[in-house]
Amino acid sequence: MSTKDTTFVYCDGSSRGNPGPAAIGVSFQNNDGIEFFFLSEKIGNATNNIAEWHALLRGMEEAIKQNIRKIKFRLDSELVVKQMKGEYKVKNKDLMGFKSKCEELKSSFENFEIQYIPREQNARADQLANFAQDSKV
């Protein structure tokens, strides 16, 4: 994959119980919508908002590891997207930690974009989060 290409990263976090057992799903896709990497991980007990932030953070960390420089994150969490863009204030101290880490990592990208998408457009990341939730490991 050329560094000139933009990578689309679909992120989703889920919590059963809110707070409760939580997991994340992250799908890395090329310009043609072909998935070339994914994450499906349990993250312990967390609220849904923490799980959503955790998914974004893990996606950013993995993109940096893979030397991806042009990136477009897609999330179905309007809260996380608006907090990341500065449209909403982050009042929860647990979420503040995630936001500051993500803000720090943002500078690692040549081009960084984050956008809210409807849940239906985030089906793969949701599937990955649910797979982690349902796995016995």
From TrEMBL:
What are the recorded GO MF terms, alphabetically? nucleic acid binding; RNA-DNA hybrid ribonuclease activity
Please give the superkingdom of this protein's source.
Bacteria
List the CDD domains.
RNase_HI_like
Q: Name one Pfam family in it.
A: RVT_3
User: Which species is the source of this protein?
Assistant: Leptospira jelokensis
From which residue to which does the signal peptide run?
Answer: none
Q: What is this protein called?
A: Ribonuclease HI family protein
Coiled-coil portions: none
Q: Taking every annotated instance into account, which residue ranges of this chain make up the domain RNase H type-1? A: 3-134
